[in-house]
Amino acid sequence: MTKENYTGAKAGISRRTFLQVTGAGVVTATAVGGSSFRALAEPYGKFTWISPRGTLEVLDDYPYWAAKKAGYFGDLDTDMQPGPSDGTATVKFVDVGQADMGFPSPGVFSFAIQNGMKLKSVFHMGARDTFSFAFRKGEGTKDLKTLEGKTILLGSAAWQSITDPLLASQGVDIKKVKYVEAGWPTWGTALASGQGDAALSWEGLRAEWIAKNLDFEYWLGVQNSKLPANTFVVRTADLGDPDRKAFLEKYLRGWAMGLEFGYQNPRAAVEAVFEQFPTLAKNLGPELGTTSILQQINVFRGDMDKREGWGSHDMASWQGFFDEIHKIGQITSPVKAEDVCTNELIGPANDFEKAKVKADADGYKLSEGFAALDVDNIKAHLFDSAVK
User: What residues does the SsuA/THI5-like domain cover (predicted)?
Assistant: First the structure.
């Protein structure tokens, strides 16, 4: 894919603009009503973050909603967009200026690099590998090599860029694995109905699937993989603009504070998301919502004693990933992690009063349903669904 594929792109998306990626890979925007584009104030105007999953009604983005509720973004003008479910949209839209920050998996980030998109990872959310493989009960495996000759279900064909390096790093001959695009959000239901042999999943989603009566067993990346997980990317050129860089530091500080708030009081962070999305609250409820967020906190926090702070990149882990995907041909040229990932914003992003955030979290008055939960008990059973 080249820059010539992107025609007529403009920066700045209203809340009423539906983001699309055509079958040919061309980014388009359709206004639901009124004028979809507006003049921008410096340095960004409304700063738009775009989801990789085609929806915002999930718990994955809890740091944003918790931070927004607590006022941690200050006077920054921020927006969240679900985007289309096409797995590569989160990088395409940032590349052409129709969004300002994306949240791709490392595999989709590698798609951007391979296709010449000048993007850089600035805040590594997934310190541990969030990805897993779901199996019907009694059919799971601890050895992924047994998936050779089998069929794996994906929600988007673009997710193969996630599964190929994960499988290869576990010694699987990926040429012997078949993939079927079973659609978003139906690929888990397809597995339950007897299609395929396994399905890609991730932390947080495990709890959400239970709420949909999708009860699987899992090979868990958080227990078995050294690969990195999803990260925040921006246009490389934005880091060279002092005003935009300063904005990014403040914006990421809001996310870091939201992450800290969620770590200190997971139930309060779930409530912040549930207030935003009542349907999600109804579908999950307090216990599964808290289970989901605890799974994700484990991924986002990682081994914090060895990190520079929330969002810092483990360059060795990233280099291992890039070496793996070069070996399997997912990228055609070697990539040096330091060229496409940076920790230059991590210090400023983590420059906040942790005591204040802790006080905010501790002082939050939980609703009755959340106050009644035994968080320690939920933590003790967080990985019960792992293949035994």
Answer: 63-267
Q: Where do we find the tokens 């999953």? A: 53
The one-letter amino acid code at 361 reads: A
The structure tokens listed for 75 are: 């006077």
CB 224 within 8 A of CB 387: no
Which stretches in the chain have pLDDT values below 50? 1-41
Residue corresponding to tokens 């932390």: 203
Q: Report the share of the chain in percent with pLDDT over 70.
A: 89
What tokens appear for 282 in the block? 């109804």
Type of residue found at 190: A
Which of 39, 66, 1, 68 is CA-nearest to residue 263? 66
Q: What is the per-residue pLDDT for 42?
A: 65
CB atoms within 10 A of CB 352: 17
Q: Which of 76, 96, 130 is nearest to 28 (CA)?
A: 96
Q: How far apart are CA 388 and CA 30, in angstroms?
A: 48
CB count, 10 Å around CB of 118? 14
CA distance 1 to 92: 10
Whether pTM > 0.85 for this model: the answer is: yes
- pLDDT, tens digit (0-9, with 9 covering 90-100), for 195-241: 999 999 999 999 999 999 999 999 999 999 999 999 999 999 999 99
Give the pLDDT confidence score for residue 85 in this predicted structure: 82
DSSP designation for 331: S
